[in-house]
Amino acid sequence: IAVAQTRADGMGAELIVGDWEKLDNFGDYAGVAVQYPDTAGAINDYTDFFAKAKAAKALTVCATDLLALCSLKPPGEMGADVAVGSAQRFGVPLGYGGPHAAFLSCIDGLKRIIPGRIIGISKDVHGNPALRMALQTREQHIKREKATSNICTAQALLANMAAMYAVYHGPEGLRNISSEAHIKAKALAVGMTELGHTVLHSTFFDTISIQLKSMSADDYMKKAVAKGYNVRKLSETTISIALDETADDVDMQALLECAGGAMALSELRVKAEAMDATGGLGRTSSFLTHPVFNTYHCEMEMQRYIYRLERKDLALNTAMIPLGSCTMKLNAASQMLPISWPEFGNVHPFVPVEQAAGYQEMF
User: Fold this and answer.
1) Which of 73, 103, 238, 325 suits a disulfide with 281, CB 3.0-4.6 Å?
2) What's the whole-model pTM score?
């Protein structure tokens, strides 16, 4: 939010942070932006909100989570003009907050002003399909302040990692990963409720906010840290816990023990499977329908596919690269290797500073 406010200030725009449910004077705003799921984990239906904003000619933007959208209704079906977010959850390490590739999508009516390079399909002189830049986005022949192509070059490696994660797992695999994270959150919510605590939202994906009973947030956090877990403190008596597909029974049991006692996880899972925590916002539409996302799902096929792509590319391992700075990005082996190191990759950006001493030294 602070980054957006700084950017808006330089453009002469005022960015106001508030409760979306209390907004009524839509005509006073050029656009509205909401988060889905929100910062506390809740899933909200923005259909009516977006409709009111668009009636007042305000742009509607939704910051969202790719993994959540494998299970949840996409923002476009609610009426969002633009969807943005991070592709980190598609196979990219946390890395203390980055670098990660972002994603940005929009309705057809806005595609001519979207930043970055848009590639379209044309035909060559022989009538064969040919890929070419569909829109004029190169900075060399447009006004400098309107240049947009450089925005997409620096994160190419991260974008490729996320894309290959989607290719390898495909829509069905991604749904399974998404569902696993969701059902673990539901099981934890059931367990916390049975221990006497209050789960604040009836709809959520993988993050639950909990009003603790007879213990403070600090007390819970001390117990959690002692077991090797970080949780978020929302207030003196409220915490938020985010799960993902890597959480296992040991993790779940430890989080429940911090809240008051061990429980039978198999029973919690049965109850979770019968529980609807999407509020009717489960995804029904298909995604990743292109054959490339539905073909290469074993290691051998994936390696061959990547190698075929590599052979089509003009890179430093086959030739000199004749163009300018945009095409001369090189990720050296010494830079690529640390991506997979847990000491670098498995550090959440919001961990206490003392848990990221190595990063602080590098900074």
Assistant:
1) 73
2) 0.89
